[in-house]
Amino acid sequence: MATVRANCVDCGDIEVGSAEVKVRVCVDDDQGSYVLRCPGCTMAVAKAAESHVVQLLVAAGSPLTMWWLPAELTEAHVGPPLTHDELLAFHQLLQGDDWFAQVASMVKG
Fold first, then answer.
1. Residue 70: pLDDT above 90?
2. How many domains does the chain fold into?
3. Which domain does 99 fall in, by range?
4. How much is the average pLDDT of 60-70?
């Protein structure tokens, strides 16, 4: 296992084992990133990573996860965005015991 050097916002320069660095690459846009836990403060450290950094980390033994952008990003959005008042009204609706029946009655079927 190789040693990976990184930087924690709170602790500064840190070193962890390559197996402790998790690498993620988005299949749709080929953007990479990595995340690790700082051994000093235990906070998560997440950084964007260019493809050569991804390749080095994976070659050093870091686990790689491939992921896809959510399909909802490609859906057509029709109508205006929700207003603050509409969101508040929906939140209040969800507080009642019969919220599901009320929402189901609003849906065109």
1. yes
2. 2
3. 79-106
4. 97
